[in-house]
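hey so u asked for the seq, here:
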Amino acid sequence: MARANHGQVGALLSYEALKDRMAIADLALVMAAVGGHEEEGSESSGPVSAAVILADKTDVHRSRVRKSAQIDFDIHDRVNYASEQSFLRVDSAARTITLELTIDTEISHVMEYFEIFLQRMTMCRRAANTLECRFKLTINGASLL
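ran it, structure tokens below
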């Protein structure tokens, strides 16, 4: 797995991709947001950071699983594979950000989703608060606030 130093590597990749395309102050904001979006003690420090956290932590979908045979062995792959639909809905008028998921419960129980994503959903709630919004979660049509 490519999880070790994921945030820091992403920040360096951001630098390489954007250094000739944006002002250094803006690039520093992006790099800080990408570098600090991981679970360990991460908090959003502003709107850019909040957006990166929301984008990263709500990324759950079947397309993330390379080999369906792995779903029996790895809970992350099983939950991702079970996630048939994933949509992050932003309602600026209502000031809500809602993650809408459809999970095939024959593949993974909703409880497994929470076993691995609870901390990530807490980060999303805090990131939404940074944006002065409320984070909501809908799984299989059931709204979980």
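Residues 61-144 form one domain. Helices lie at 6-18, 24-35, 47-57, 75-82, 110-130.
lmk if thats what u needed
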